[in-house]
Amino acid sequence: MSLKQEYKKKIVSANEAVKVVKSGDWVDYSFCLGQPVALDQALALRKEELFDVKIRGGLRMAPLAVVDVDPEREHFCYNSWHFSGLERQLSDKGLCNYIPMIYRNKPLHYRKSLEVDVAMIMVTPMDEYGNFNFSFTNSATKAIVEKAKIVIVEVNENLPRVIGGKENSIHLSEIDFIVEGNHPDIPVINPGKISEEEIKIAALIAAEIPNGATIQLGIGGLPNAVGTMIAESDLKDLGFHTEMLVDAYMVIDKAGKMTNKKKNINMGKGVFSFCAGSSDLYEWVRGNRQIESYPINYVNDPAVMSQIDHFITINNCIEVDLYGQVASESAGKRHISGTGGQLDFVTGGYLSNGGKSFIALTSTFVDKKSGELKSRLVPSLMESTAITNPRSQAHCLVTEWGIADLAGRTTWERAERIIQISHPSFHDELIKQAEKLGIWRKTNKRM
After folding, report:
1. Where does the Acetyl-CoA hydrolase/transferase C-terminal domain start and stop, copy by copy (predicted)?
2. Most buried residue among 102, 228, 279, 382 by CB atoms closer than 10 A?
3. What is the pLDDT of residues 121-141, one digit of tens each?
């Protein structure tokens, strides 16, 4: 049978495809821009026929029909590997649960521990060899379809093919059903406004990056600020190795600073695992032979990162306590994002020859309810707050007031260094609290 004949044989409507889902099933929606649209809508239409269908997804950037039609969660139960803004709102309403993980373990979780009755994933149109490219979402997609009892692909004509890498496609022979249809434009994340504090932090970090370095940037205004500053600097021959491909890399590349030729591994190629950003970023990725996608168990493996000289990792957090414990995913019991690969990159940056790992945050924020200025550097984290990076893995902490290298430091050294980069109006209170905790020496510097 020819590829065209086999393809035609597997085409069904979205409504027909979702008939394979049974009550009690685990259905996987993939991750970020790899998640289905038409199949989600079709599954929602079966609400009255189904009960207790559990769905996994993550970083959802468009509304979920299965959630919208079932606010009581009797028919569909949605769960996320990493919260987007949308999923955070759903969680606040009791409509989404978090799945704790260290991101690099995600493929292993599927291959070793999880059940997948039906996988529904978004892919590019088939190529002449029968392959459907995973486009923006490599991550753990191959592991998901390997484990699934039934695989349904939703072909999105707007998704670009990503050339190169590993485990970045699925063959026609591995697919049970194919769904076609017209799709809306791909959801975007446009770079936000950069604050003065973020500009100061970006300048401190940029000064620590040497020529020929390989960089990793997280999501948000701060990485965007660092990318902009690098693009305007005299740095050259930079490379990237990152879980999430964001606009900052495109900006640096278009400024002529990104060659990837100094990398020890994947030389000449920028490496990523999933992508989300502006429409300009999506076009930059399309057919770009200088970019390769890899599964997250390769990209986020600290052993892989340790092979890259001068690997500089830059990530955000919510708050840090005086011991150097970093909270990046929750504020008390309120879940905000996810562990992601932050701990992996903190470890990998430190293991790299000449590498550094930075956790960055503005020193203060304004409480929305009280209007009061509060410190992000605190004596102790709130009760129920998830610790993303333990104090034992702390490296460089950065605010607009400076850089604190915490690696290998005693508790009193950490307290002193962290207070030094806090907002001056909080120094006295933080010192007082450090004394109560028994981590302040009389010989410590008074700010």
Report:
1. 277-434
2. 228
3. 999 999 999 999 999 999 999
